[in-house]
Amino acid sequence: MKPQIILLPDIVFRVVRTNDGEIIGIILKNFDDTLEDAIKVAQEISADMFNNYPDASNIQSLIGIVDRNGKFKQTISPNLKIVTDVNIELGKQNLLEIFRMIGEY
What we know:
Layout: E1 11-17, E2 23-30, H1 35-52, E3 62-66, E4 72-76, E5 83-85, H2 88-104
Antiparallel strand pairs: 1-2, 1-3, 3-4, 4-5
């Protein structure tokens, strides 16, 4: 049986990493399920990241969008200009790996 990942709906998250790729935090914020708001919230999260994690790497820190159904659907580029759909199976694998690493930090 495949593991099931249940996420909070309507969130934007950022996995905060150093330049070496080490996870040093995660930031989650709700959004109104529109792409425009997701980008606005991602900008707020990025500001929070730099204020709270001085060793954070903008390039290494993943920004993700979880839709109203709790599914990891999209990523946002570090410059907030490109939104990319996530392959659902790949997204699940990536999240499992992220959650494993977060549990270790």
